[in-house]
Write a structure and sequence with these properties.
alpha/beta; Spore Coat Polysaccharide Biosynthesis Protein SpsA, Chain A; Jelly Rolls; 3 domains; 6-stranded antiparallel sheet; 34% strand; globular
Amino acid sequence: MKIYPVILSGGAGTRLWPLSRAAYPKQLLPLVSEQTMLQETVARVCAWPEALAPLVVCGNEHRFMIAEQLREMDVRPHAIVLEPQGKNTAPAVAAAALQLMRQDPDAVMLVLPADHVITNREAFHEAVRAAMRSVQEGALVTFGITPSKPETGYGYILRGAAHGDTGNFAVERFVEKPDLERAQGFVADGRYYWNSGMFLLRARDYLEELELHRPLIAAAVKDAVAKAYTDLDFCRLGEAAFGASPAESIDYAVMENTRRAVVVPADIGWSDVGSWSALQEVMPADAQGNVTRGDVYLDGVSNSLVRAESRMVAVLGLQDLIVVETDDAVLVAHKDKAQDVKGVVDQLKDKKRSEHIHHKRVYRPWGSYESVDAGDRFQVKRIIVKPGEKLSLQMHYHRAEHWVVVSGSALVTRGEEVTLLSENESIYLPIGVTHRLENPGKLPLHLIEVQSGSYLGEDDIVRFDDVYKRA
């Protein structure tokens, strides 16, 4: 029986700030290898002959980056389904189930978060095969991770009686994140597993249970899928209908209520990488227990994670430390405070700052831009346009722009005039003039933009035409 991987890519990963941000969350980052977390997840399932093309569920803001990362892998997805707003996992899985059942009424879904680590791929595939035995009998299967220590950051699953002769177990109950004493008891008991948030289930079985236990979610998502429409290569769910759905996880909505829940014990080298200390645990360390990445110098340092993204970082004579440097923010924390990073993000939100949303380099479907310098009435940006891509036809009410081509070629529309610029050539765009930038070449276009005017915000853009259909 074929399996449809359903990859949920809607998380924010706030505990991995300052690297993970709202506009560029952890699933889109290369945290444990040269591939991003999303690409690692896709590779894990696409290497398996039983799996079909993945269906990805994500938010509108990340759609082009997800599509680009799949293209880099030469993977053509079954669909990329866009949630109008985040409603947690129960509605997202329901939308995927309804989409798949349009083509295959017997579709079996392997539901995977896009941002988990699994180091033992073969053991993972074997766990999925074991889960299939229960799915064929109508069960909704979750994967319970064999605990390696008394972890207080995960929920737990208590196994019950054997599920027939499948080798799996009925779920006795789900347990919220425990304190250390209870977690120690769970590990000693031997019947408790970490709740992985991964599932194998037949689409129609999941929808039946959702309608039984959460009819409002089922009705809203059914309406949203009925009103879905195509936007470029994406499937957009009906905005108002999906917005009417309650927000709830698949665990709370279905798995804790259904009598059909089954758990497959899985020892697969799993981590949800929910904090910097969790990332350190799954990364190879040196003889002193340090995990490093980038231009890092250590002296007398042990059991620490030090990551440099844009400059050299030196750490001397410290232990049990987390240091993460980006081009606009630096995190320094004791490992025991790894879970508290979310509080920094909350403070940034409260103060209406932007460091929790964007990096200095901001990604767009046509490429990226990065602020180089800014001051009173001016801003300098470095712009990169991918080969064959173009920005929207636009104008600004409050700023003029001067473009200087550093490398590549630029096709510039300025009013009624169209000009081809090469390296070291430039053009001036006055306030209020309609303009567009294109890269007609086969190499990336690198360009310096100098803005000047009374207001330089990104919302001073009036779009007249856009190949990406942005508002």
